[in-house]
Structures are given as C-alpha cells and as structure tokens.
Design goal:
single chain, 323 residues, alpha/beta, Rossmann fold, 8 helices, binds S-adenosylmethionine, methyltransferase, Methyltransf_12, Methyltransferase domain-containing protein, methyltransferase activity
C-alpha cells in the first residue's frame, strides 16, 4: 500500500493533527507520522510540553486510530525522542455478525474474553451475583458458549448447573462441545417464561436484549417473576462497540448512522436499571465496549473480592469458599 511521506508533528494541537491524518488516510489508505516518544512524557497529560514537542500517551493514538477507522501499526523509535507511527485504514469488509450467528460464520472468530475490560467487568459482575455451590445458571443468547468460560474463572470448582439457550442450532452444538456438562436448548427467548426450565440463581443475557423481536421489558419481567430464585441476580450486557476488520471499535451504532450514537444504549440501560431497581434490586452499571447491568437483591450483602485473580488465589478462594 503506498504511504505518503511521513508527517512530522511537534507542537501542533490535536485539532490540527486529526484532520491532516484523516485527509492522508482518505488519499492513500495509510499514513506515517512522527511524534514525541510517549514514553518520555510519562506522567504528563496529553498536550503538555516536552523538549520534543507536545506529549501524547499511546492511548491518544489508539483512540485516534479507532476514530479514523484505522489500525495503528507497530511504532518504531526514530531517534532524538521521537517515534514513527503508521495508521492503515481498515479493510472494507463486513462485520463478523453480518452473516448471522451460526457456528460456521465470522461471529465465531470473536472472543470477548480477550477484551480486558470485558473480562474484568464480567468476572466482577459474576462475583457480585455469586451463585451458590451447585447453583443454577441460565445463559440466554449463549451462542457457542464462550462467555460461560468466565464462570469457571469467577467461581473455580463451584460445580454450577448451566442451561444455555439460543436460536442457532449450530452455535449450540459448538457450545455443547465446549461445555459438555451444561445443557443447551434451541429456544426463542420471546417464548419465556417456560415453567419447565425452573428458577436460576444467575441469569446472563449478553448482547441479546437489543436483538430483533425482543422486548426487554417483557423479557425482564418474565425472568424476574418466573426464572429467578429469591436470592438470584441478573447480568445484562449491551454492546457499546462494533467489530470491524479485526478491531473492536468504541461506540454503539444506530442503523444507518455512520458515527456512534449512544441514544438507544442509554435508553435501554436506563430502562433496565430503573425497572430492576423498582423491583427490589441493587443495580450496578459497569463496562466499556459492553455495558453490563448487574442486579442483585437489594437486601444482599454487596460482595467484596470481585477481582479476577491468579490461579493460586482462585484455588485458595475455592477451598475457603470465599465469594
Ligand atoms: C450478538 S450475539 C451474542 C452472543 C453472546 N451472548 C455474546 O455476548 O457474544 C446474540 C445471540 O443471541 C441469539 N438470539 C438472538 N435472538 C434470540 C432469541 N429471540 N432467542 C434466543 N436467542 C436469540 C443469537 O442467535 C446470537 O447467538
């Protein structure tokens, strides 16, 4: 891919840099730039002066790449306190969900537990709910069951009884292969409540509630009234990102909007939070690329020790029965 000659930035504000990079990317699909080495300004805020120009942390450049729809390629040091960066425009490929959620599709390439914020906030949310030893877990829209791996991370050895449901038979077959001890059912969540399923200590619904045909108020009421134990809790996930060309790009998108717009996300999270609060739950809202709404009974003790810990620590917790 042709790269135009590197642009050199020292004291220019970001308001000058951003449009210059956008224009260069639009022209050539790739742009190189040299900037002050972020390592030399550690502790400074973005825009504070250094001997080599205005400091900006790596975070600025990763955010900028995301905003401009580009990969940030591995930087190189180019002497005298400067680094050379390159941005390469994302390939014009469909998102991994464009072909649906079957096991053979691109959605199967997505591993949300590789997003550090998701990993930590999901484990934290799970530990807030903390189903008991041998407790029952219902995972709605479970797809191929990747998120269920987090149960063992949060509660090693707790022997949970897991039921996963989804519309996609091929995704459920993959989930069954991944979690042979769990039960997977091909079921439309709009048919809930289903008394034969019984009650659960934890209900998980990640990136499901905004799917076509689902009314979250109806589904949440059915779950609360018919599928939760009195001490049970819920974890609801709302995507605040989209996947494109291998990247997780910040911000929920509305249909036909080019730029992120968080209106629907904010409305749905607010509605879920308010409804659960009214129904007697303590509610936590966490996360970044996926916003998690965690609800536990208002009278429940808010658990501590929410961190994902090392194997050693987790084993000790399992032995001592700590939440
Ligand atoms: C965006 S994917 C999320 C998968 C997984 N929970 C995750 O967070 O990565 C949505 C999943 O919900 C399933 N789904 C959508 N509508 C559904 C419905 N009405 N009943 C059951 N599953 C549904 C889809 O088949 C798909 O596997």
């Amino acid at each position: 891919m042709p790269t135009s000659p590197a642009l050199h930035f020292t004291h220019e504000p970001l308001s000058v840099i951003l449009p210059a990079l956008r224009a260069a990317l639009a022209d050539a699909g790739e742009v190189a730039l040299t900037v002050p080495d972020p390592d030399l300004g550690l502790g400074l805020y973005a825009g504070e002066a250094t001997a080599h120009g205005l400091h900006r942390p790596w975070h600025t450049w990763t955010d900028l790449a995301d905003l401009l729809g580009a990969h940030l390629l591995t930087p190189e040091r180019v002497g005298a306190g400067r680094v050379r960066l390159r941005l390469r425009a994302w390939a014009d490929v469909p998102g991994p969900d464009a072909g649906g959620y079957g096991a053979g599709g691109d959605w199967a390439r997505v591993d949300k537990l590789e997003d550090p914020v998701f990993l930590l906030t999901l484990v934290e949310a799970l530990r807030r709910v903390s189903p008991p030893q041998g407790g029952r877990v219902l995972a709605l829209g479970v797809n191929r069951g990747r998120e269920l791996d987090a149960l063992e991370l949060a509660f090693p050895g707790r022997g949970l009884d897991v039921v996963g449901v989804d519309l996609s038979a091929s995704a459920l077959a993959a989930a069954q292969a991944r979690h042979p001890g769990a039960t997977f059912l091909e079921l439309n969540v709009t048919t809930l409540p289903r008394p034969e399923l019984g009650r659960f200590d934890l209900v998980l619904a990640l990136s499901l509630l905004q799917s076509p045909g689902i009314r979250q108020d109806v589904l949440l009421a059915a779950l609360r009234r018919h599928h939760l134990t009195p001490s049970g809790g819920l974890i609801l996930g709302y995507p605040n990102a989209r996947y494109r060309d291998g990247s997780l790009s910040y911000g929920a998108r509305l249909r036909n909007f080019a730029r992120p717009d968080l209106s629907l996300l904010a409305a749905d999270v607010t509605e879920a939070r308010r409804g659960l609060h009214k129904a007697g739950f303590k509610v936590f809202v966490t996360g970044k690329y996926e916003v998690l709404v965690t609800a536990i009974p208002a009278e429940a003790r808010t658990p501590g020790n929410l961190e994902l810990s090392s194997g050693f620590r987790m084993n000790r917790d399992a032995i001592t029965g700590m939440p």
